[in-house]
Write a structure and sequence with these properties.
The chain is α/β, with parallel strands linked by helices. It is built from 5 helices and 6 strands. Strands 2-3-1-4-5-6 form a 6-stranded mixed sheet, sandwiched between helices. Strand 5, helix 4 and strand 6 form a beta-alpha-beta unit. Helix 2 packs across helix 3. It is globular, with a radius of gyration of 14 Å. The structure holds guanosine-5'-diphosphate (GDP) and magnesium ion. Guanosine-5'-diphosphate binds next to helix 1.
Length: 163
């Protein structure tokens, strides 16, 4: 049996970078500038022997006005409905921001099966965020670096029981 993993979180935390790593192709655009990827993208993910469908939720990066929150909510809710498990990504360098709290609330309300991942976790700068992340009440955060491929073993360990 396989499963569907949706990567959710605010713009610029590194969702598409992880998507590309899992899918192994540049299906999702990654850019330093917000505003490149849109909506939901689906690919075939693999992590060692695990095979699964992975969804990259983008499409938030365009909004600069007060519609951002509504769009985040709709898109995230759709991703949650499509997925067996959500990888909720925060930016370990930025810390836990108010926008992250909004996502945490959506995921809690939808009763989503959540894996909390603190990305950009390479180096010591991430240590504080790991502690802050516990306060989101979504379980133990996994420290990863989508760019450098760190934490993929831990991610595999939490995904394996779902497969
Ligand atoms: P998205 O908006 O959540 O899809 O984020 P992107 O995947 O487009 O990444 C946003 C920025 O973060 C890009 O400049 C990435 O290169 C950078 N980034 C992604 N993962 C990491 C990481 O593990 N470490 C660091 N330092 N930067 C990262
Ligand atoms: Mg993206």
């Amino acid at each position: 049996m396989t499963f569907t993993l949706a990567i959710v979180g605010r713009p610029n935390v590194g969702k598409s970078t992880l998507f590309n790593r899992l899918v192994g192709k540049k299906l999702a655009l990654v850019d330093d500038q917000p505003g490149v990827t849109r909506d939901l993208r689906e690919g075939e993910g693999r992590l060692a022997d695990l095979r699964f469908t992975v969804i990259d939720s983008a499409g938030l990066e365009e909004a600069t006005d007060d519609s951002l929150q509504g769009r985040m909510r709709r898109l995230t809710e759709r991703a949650v409905e499509m997925a067996d498990v959500c990888l909720f990504m925060i930016d370990a360098r930025a810390g836990v921001l108010p926008a992250d709290q909004v996502f945490a609330d959506i995921l809690r309300k939808k009763n989503a099966n959540v894996i909390l991942a603190a990305n950009k976790g390479e180096g010591r700068a991430a240590d504080n965020t790991i502690l802050e992340a516990y306060a989101l009440g979504l379980g133990e955060p996994i420290r990863i670096s989508a760019e450098h491929g760190e934490g993929m073993g831990e991610l595999m360990d939490v995904l394996r029981p779902i497969s």
